[in-house]
Write a structure and sequence with these properties.
Blueprint: H1 2-5, E1 9-18, E2 21-31, E3 36-40, H2 47-54, E4 62-67, E5 70-71, H3 80-86, E6 87-90, H4 102-112, H5 118-131, H6 147-159, E7 165-169, H7 177-192, E8 196-200, H8 204-209, E9 213-218, E10 221-224
Parallel strand pairs: 3-8, 3-9, 6-7, 7-8
Antiparallel strand pairs: 1-2, 1-4, 4-5, 9-10
Helix pairs in contact: 5-6, 6-7
Bound molecules: adenosine-5'-triphosphate (ATP).
Keywords: ATP-binding, Nucleotide-binding
Organism: Reichenbachiella ulvae
GO molecular function, one term: ATP binding
Length: 236
Amino acid sequence: MELDSRPVVEVSEANIYQEDHKVLSDINFRIEKGEFVFLVGRTGSGKSSLLKCLYADLPIASGAIDVAGYNLKKIKNKDIPFLRRKIGIIFQDFQLFPDRTVTENLTFVMRATGWKDRTKIKSRLAEVLMRVGLGAAADKMPHQLSGGEQQRVVIARALINEPVILFADEPTGNLDPEVSNGIFSLFKEINRSGTAILMATHNHKFIEDHPERILKCEEGKLLDSAEVEFNLSSHY
Ligand SMILES: Nc1ncnc2c1ncn2[C@@H]1O[C@H](COP(=O)(O)OP(=O)(O)OP(=O)(O)O)[C@@H](O)[C@H]1O
């Protein structure tokens, strides 16, 4: 029970570096269970670097970051796969195996994350594909799917292990506006059923239409709309 009430993400006094370059300094924020949070900022302001820290792809120089109950400052390499089972990661480039079917793409991740029982694999597979509106795509190759459909497969893959949070880095960056809206709606629907979402985006329309909390990377700092008012009309 205690774990349930803890924030999904808790960042205290963290500094984030890319090599010798300090990208973000002294950042502090929490994301609670089931929250939806946008991450904005100009190109190069540090959004991807922050997300990488949160999914343990970039070490934290100083400060503390807890994600899904894992202390990322102390996490051992062998524990990173267990952290990754509790979170979902979605990028703008779809990163599916081009030479494997949708089913094979998903079962690859299932087997890598400990799924063994064939019946359970089959039913979970059907469940996540239905969830993203791709019930009929199980046997398709990625190239037989549109960009939006491929991104739905990626989202299905991220949902397999019922993550507590999805980290999405420009998930609609390669999609046209109408398809982007469909993908965004899917994220909102996933969020409504309890999964927290942190989404980096340059899409002004999403933010205008959905007044959610916003974290903004600006000049090496992270601003939080829950704490301070800031100008969103400047470029982001
Ligand atoms: N692998 C890397 N090695 C060295 N520096 C990097 C690396 N990746 C990013 N950087 C630098 O870190 C800074 C932050 O980059 P980051 O990719 O986090 O920005 P971003 O806000 O995600 O940008 P975009 O909106 O273009 O995706 C930039 O100055 C960038 O050049």
